[in-house]
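Question (not urgent): is this output format expected?
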Amino acid sequence: GPTQRAAASSGWPARGSALGYMVATALVSGIEDPATPPMWADSAARYLPRARQLVAHGGHDTGSPCVVAIEAAFLADPTGALDESCVDTMHPPPFALGGESGTLVR
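Got this back:
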């Protein structure tokens, strides 16, 4: 109930406090993602002063070798320069409409 919630959250920072949000954060979005679009990462970045945002071509799964390499570089050095040039060469994979016998779309 409310008493348990109040006790559990008693050590949390005050609402609106930036405490705890100063950690370097990578926000990776797919430009064609209707479920979690890049504008949501834009909104989150306003509250994360050390956020770095990458918008890649593709949908929800942006796990291409390009993005994986950028994520690895970020994890190795969150404040270092990131080579994001490969993002411009990415293209979404083709997909079929209407099942296996559907039309291939590129």
